[in-house]
Amino acid sequence: MSTIDSKIPEGPLAEKWTNYKAHQKLVNPANKRRLDIIVVGTGLAGGSAAATLGELGFNVLNFCIQDSPRRAHSIAAQGGINAAKNYQNDGDSVYRLFYDTIKGGDYRAREANVYRLAEVSNNIIDQCVAQGVPFAREYGGQLANRSFGGAQVSRTFYAKGQTGQQLLLGAYASLNRQVKKGTVKQFTRYEMLDLVIIDGRARGIIARNLVTGEIERFAAHAVVIATGGYGNVYFLSTNAMASNGSVAVQCYHKGAYFANPAYAQIHPTCIPAHGEFQSKLTLMSESLRNDGRIWVPKKKEDAEAIRAGKLKPTDIKEEDRDYYLERRYPAFGNLVPRDVASRAAKERCDAGYGVGATGYAVYLDFKESIERLGKQAIQGLDHHVIESLGGEQAAIQIKGKEAVASRYGNLFQMYEKIVDDNPYETPMMIYPASHYTMGGIWVDYELMTSIPGLFAIGEANFSDHGANRLGASALMQGLADGYFVLPYTIQNYLSDQIQVPRFSTDLPEFVEAEKAVKARIARLMNIKGKRSVDSIHKELGRIMVDYVGMGRNKAGLETALEKIEEVKKEFYTNVRIPGEDNTLNVELEKALRVEDFLEIGKLMALDALNREESCGGHFREEYQTEEGEAKRDDEHFMYVSCWKYQGEDKKPELLKEELKYEAIKVQQRNYKK
Q1: Does residue 670 sit in helix, strand or coil?
Q2: Beta bridge partners of residue 225, listed in sequence order
Q3: Distance of alpha carbon 493 from alpha carbon 509, whole angstroms
Q4: Reported pTM
Q5: pLDDT at 18 over 90
Q6: Do residues 593 and 244 touch, judged by C-beta distance below 8 A?
Q7: Closest Cα partner for 311 from 430, 415, 427?
Q8: SS3 for 304?
């Protein structure tokens, strides 16, 4: 009993005290909140959704695979977040953001969802400013913007090179407020392993405590999935090692449609792979393309000399450099969408003009930007100040580097630590790498999947980016879904559930789901083969990169399906998981995820084989224009591919959601004018 409760008043005050305590019990959040919602994931989408749902009066159970929501992979987003505020007065608008997003996705996104995303984008910035997110500002105090790929206006808000981290801290603060109030209960170091369905509705999950190994049951009136994408199917990617598509596969097995699995994004500005023992790749923000210029040598002999270590990039004269994006796409230059920039880099490297030890890298050069920004900075400076800096040219370099550092300093530091090269003096080396997945769980306009009561938000769903996501739109979608869409659409589903009592986790559906999870774990633990989980994951990754990567063709995709089956057999007969299942076991965690990646890899190859066209990140080499650009087939493939699970080792059923455009004209993408 607390100190205050131990001093219950006597006499005339006793009745008032009793009434007060009864009132306090009545208003206690745990008592007045009659509807429970499970939110799996604590990134920008999951964290903002859990916080908002708690504020709205729901009892929220929030699950985090990391040891803190602050370590969600959203923290790795660097460059910025899009919104149509038009602070630059350069002609931006909600409609223009909507149009750029549809065009960037190569006309393979659902029109209504994208327009709603553009509409709420401005609210996101207001929300985050109110939370104290330290966006960059102009000298006069106005929020600053910079340009990003796929747009000819400056609409990207940023916090140096750590925008995702700052936005996540804002959402984390809101989430902590609800945890303190008791409206959100946080479960850290838990991983969802199955979905529980009762009478056709999603009513709970089975999760594993990653610290103790215990399998636990959790019930709710609705379940929200915010677990990100499946880019790690390629093994080497920019995703955190814990990022996985397992929850999507679990929901797919229970009846949720898997939409557009072939749509995977290859990011053009990543630090190239540099060793056999590398476990992930490092993203260099797309914002660097705002000021940096991408090039390779014009002469093959120069590229060969650089690869042999006989020449440095600074030895290549300006007239001997091929700024290939500026040459091929004069209107957008280095700011073409990611799929276009990635394919262009691969084409140059395949043709023998690549640099670096492997020949699979291009340069991202800031020499011109340093000079341009330096000249601007010294305008108006007293000549004595300029002389004190070593003269005009020295002053330009000093002030130019300071200007670049103010925008991208932490990114430059990160590059130098990894590569051991000074990017202020020597051009960065970059190459495309797996980054984001536009495909995911199918949802309707209200973000509910084909399973009633199961919702999917953020990168976990397919809804907003079509065949290619524009840079700085991932953070926009995650926060739009979490703050402004799901909290209201989920209420339409829950409107007739207010009288439904809480579910017991002793129900047969929970018992059966837990038994299935334990049987799955036992099966893997008992294989006792000779190969590590990582070695099999790497083998799968090589297949995906070679046959289901930036360039795809019919023969390669058929080969991929055969090879994935071989890897699957190897996995089930020869994988070795050391340790025990009833305690902390990282290898078991990885094995469960790789088992799901094998399923995702097959789905991606199958979907890519079915889609006999090129669009966005899905590039079938048989279907391209004379200039090597993606060639769509709107007559036969203007639809969302929805794959329905039919059972283990059975081909899934293809369902089609037709795409209809009423507000825009569908046409061939053009970034040249």
Answers
A1: coil
A2: 40, 456
A3: 22
A4: 0.92
A5: no
A6: yes
A7: 427
A8: helix
The span from the CA of 345 to the CA of 296, in Å, is 9
Q: Are 124 and 485 in contact (CB under 8 A)?
A: no
Burial bucket for residue 94 (CB in 10 Å: 0-12, 13-18, 19+): middle
User: Could you say which DSSP state residue 67 is in?
Assistant: S
**Alpha-carbon gap, residue 605 to 257, rounded angstroms:** 16
Q: Which among 176, 206, 241, 212 is positioned nearest to 541, based on CA atoms?
A: 241
What's the pLDDT at 286? 86
Among candidates 227, 294, 237, 225, which has minimal Cα distance to 264? 237
Q: What's the DSSP call for residue 137? A: B
Is residue 62 within 8 A of residue 56, CB to CB? The reply is: no
Considering only CA atoms, which of 419, 466, 415, 418 is closest in space to residue 439?
466
Per-residue pLDDT band at 235 (split at 50, 70, 90): very high
Reported as type and span, the H/E element at residue 208 is strand 201-209
Cα 629 to Cα 157: distance, rounded to the nearest angstrom:
30
β strands within 390-478, DSSP E: 428-437, 440-441, 454-456
Q: Any idea how long the chain is?
A: 673
- Catalytic site positions: 338
Q: Span 308-336, mean pLDDT?
A: 95
Helical H segments across 83-232, by residue range: 94-104, 111-131, 163-181
- List of residues 6+ apart from 287 with CB closer than 8 A: 78, 79, 80, 146, 148, 156, 158, 161, 407, 408, 411, 471, 472
Query: What are the DSSP calls for 453-514, one per residue?
Result: TEEE-GGGB-SS-TTSPPTT-HHHHHHIIIIIIHHHHHHHHHTT-TTPPPPPTTSHHHHHHH
- Burial class from Cβ neighbours inside 10 Å (0-12, 13-18, 19+) for residue 89 reads exposed
| Cα separations in angstroms, 128 against 113, 163, 407, 486 | 22, 11, 20, 18
Q: Are 73 and 459 a contacting pair, CB within 8 Å?
A: no
Residue 371, pLDDT > 90, answer: yes
Contacts 24+ apart (CB under 8 A), 625-629: 625/668, 628/343, 628/347, 629/340, 629/668, 629/669
Q: What is the DSSP string of 571-630?
A: HHHHB---S-SSS--HHHHHHHHHHHHHHHHHHHHHHHHH--S-BTTB-BTTSB-TTS-B
Cα–Cα distances (Å) from 577 to 131, 525, 539, 571, in that order, read: 44, 6, 17, 11
Tokens of 454: 């199961």
How far is residue 192 from each of residues 223, 454, 505, 631, measured CA to CA in Å?
11, 14, 15, 40
Question: Stretch 259-263: mean pLDDT, rounded?
Answer: 98
Locate tokens 């280095």: which residue?
334
The β-bridge partners of 430 are 362
CA 563 vs. chain centroid, Å, equals 27
Q: Is residue 623 within 8 Å of 557, Cβ to Cβ?
A: no
Contact 35, 59 (CB under 8 A): yes
- Cα 560 from Cα 49, distance rounded (Å): 38
Q: What is the 3-state secondary structure (H, E, C) of 527-560?
A: CCCCECHHHHHHHHHHHHHHHCCCCECHHHHHHH
Structure tokens at 284: 């260099």
